[in-house]
Structure formats: C-alpha cells, structure tokens
Amino acid sequence: MRIFSNVSELKAAQGTHLGFTEWRTVTQEQVNLFADATGDHQWIHVDTERAAQGPFGATIAHGFLSLSMLPTMTSELIRVDGLAMGINYGLNKVRFPTPVPVGSRVRAGGEILDLTDTAQGVLGTLKLVIEVEGVPKPACVAEQLILYIPA
Fold this sequence. Notes:
InterPro entries: HotDog_dom_sf (IPR029069), MaoC-like_dom (IPR002539), NodN-like (IPR039375). Belongs to the enoyl-CoA hydratase/isomerase family. Pfam families: MaoC_dehydratas. The protein has 151 residues and is an alpha+beta fold. It has one domain: Hotdog Thioesterase (Thiol Ester Dehydrase, Chain A, Roll). The chain is 26% helix and 40% strand. It contains 6 helices and 8 strands. It is elongated.
C-alpha cells in the first residue's frame, strides 16, 4: 500500500504505479449473492451444471461483480492522510476484456493517472486493472474517480 501524508504529496506522485493487491479467490457464493442483490441470475453465473457445458467450462463472475470489488481493492493500494473524506466520484472507460471463472484468483494493480484541483478538493483518476491469475488479458480495466477533500 502506498501511503500519502496529504493531497500535496499525492499530487507529486501523479503518473506512478501503486503496486498490486493481494490475490483473492472468487467464490460461487459471492457470485450467487451478487446475483440475488442485482436480480441478474443468468445461467452463466449461477447454474454450475449448465455452465460446465457452456463456452467457459464453468460459471463466471458478473462483470459488475468484478467492478464492485474495486473500492476494497483500491483501499489496499492507496491511503491518503489529512483528508476530511474521500468520495467515490464515478468511473471512466470501464471494460471487461476476459471473464473471471468462479474459483479463480484475482488481484488489482493501480496507477495514478491524473489529479485535478476542483472547488471541493482534488479529483483523482486512478487506472485500475483486475487480473486473473495465469490469464494474459485483464478481467476489468477501469478509471476510478475519487474526490479527495482535505481536512
């Protein structure tokens, strides 16, 4: 984890890579709970028998489940001290280039793309890439926007 003492120190690190999170296993229970929460019960996610005969040979995580892991993964990559708060401001350019088979391990890497002063604080753009262990193409690539509000 990269720890920055304040927003000024963060701004000085623009363009740097933050490293990687720990690997975590995507479970069928997570996929099923996500399906229940979103109402997306497509067979490729929740029907293990049918999915075994499908194009991926197993159930796969929802793309949006992968995306929903980003806040936790981001908190493993970066911490900025001296803030009143950090606010999830949105996303740019989200893509899901390859599926995440249930039972596979994933991790994220991050890079500080941009930091822009605003009236409320500093708007950070982080490029986050979720990798599947042993797979050359990423599972998710997204630009996460975080509004850093100094104390």
